[in-house]
Amino acid sequence: MYFCGWDSDVPVEFENIEGRTATFTMPASDVEISAKFKPLGPDKPKPSGGSSTSITPSHSSSSSDVSAKTETAQKIRAELNADNSLTVDWDKITGVSKYGLYYEKNGKNVKVIETTKNKVTIRNAKNNFTYKFKLKYVISGQTVDAPAGYTAELKVYYKPVLKLIQKNSKITASWNPVPNAEYYKVYKVVNGKLKFVAKTTKTAVRFTGKPGKTYTYSVSAVVGGKETELTKSDRKSIKVK
Asked: How much is the pTM?
């Protein structure tokens, strides 16, 4: 094997890329540098001297640690905000003119936005949905997938997702716990309107129903003193056997 140059996980510009010693300008994010080797061919002489190689980053104004992180280091972050919006931000990549943020849905990539910035806010986040974000970027006019680490996954729950089951005339209403919920309010739908029936810090309640009758319920969460908004799509119905 013989040394044939340097490679990096994010675009950087090397000086003397094929030399045993090379330099580059350190970008704002961490960068992983690796040496490239090729098998010796019949027309390639063995290199003389030692086999050591070295590379030195020349610092810009960034104070980023120059030590390499693992390939799976998280370089994109997603967070649910108090107003149920999502904030997604990521480490900048040197030389990039534009970023494309996507999430996966039914095995396909859905574009969120194209932007020159490295932080976006997504309004009206989907409840009870797992966002699997990935990043693409444009460099030298070409769109490519961002390197390893530029993915993030976030399960969004900002209001309860109700489930109803019944057995022996008993109806059990249960739902997922909502982060930071102080308590939950349970409603029964009567003549198309919500009627408050219970307040609880638990994630399930039980009612008694009459055989042959259909019951409809809805549940909200109170977070920071504010009750999550209920829509007709949040209502669930069940018929007692």
From this structure: 0.59
